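Changelog note: in this version the structure field was regenerated for every chain. One regenerated record is shown below for reference.
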Amino acid sequence: METNYRIAYDKYWQDLKRKVPEEIATQLAVTYSSDTRQFVVTFFNSEYILDCNNETIYRKTDGHVPEINVCIIMLNYLTYAQSPQETAKKWVSLKEIPNGGMLFYPAFHKNSIEGLIKAFGHQSKQLLASGSVLNGQPASLGDASVIFQAFPEIPLCVVVWEGDEEVRANATILFEPSIEHLLHIESAIGLGMYLASKLKRAIVEQEQ
């Protein structure tokens, strides 16, 4: 698995270097310095430096290097950039995203959604506490919901419905339709998996 991530990581760096960085900065809410050949990308409200000279990614405030799957998502965000598209402002599930959303949904549900149901399906308000770790903002869907700003143009919404003896708990991760033009479908899935993992981890950290 690590080898596959490394191959994708190296490929996206090469893809990025073939692009005109100043054009990327006009398409996305990122900054680029031609002097240092560095992008500054905001990911869940933290700024990260993507250094094209050294092919490194680290958090601006403390130099923290994110997990390789997160690095791949950031690189895909820069390399996949397309001209802004007019899309409806609404929430959709992964199944409704073209180019593979329906195909990948069963695995996404198993790897991400089921974990959210287990973690928050009988304590939905805990989602609000966990969501604050990633600067999430409460929303009005389900029994509890939180909106997260993954990138400036890419919000995600996590929704939980509590279960009881008669009704099974449920959860979902929602996207805006515009994500189709901003991330490859596999990176969109990776983003949802990352968010679900961080939310579940926040419960453990709060209990310690």
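Spot check on this record: Helices lie at 2-17, 21-27, 68-79, 101-120, 125-131, 185-207. The longest strand covers residues 144-151.
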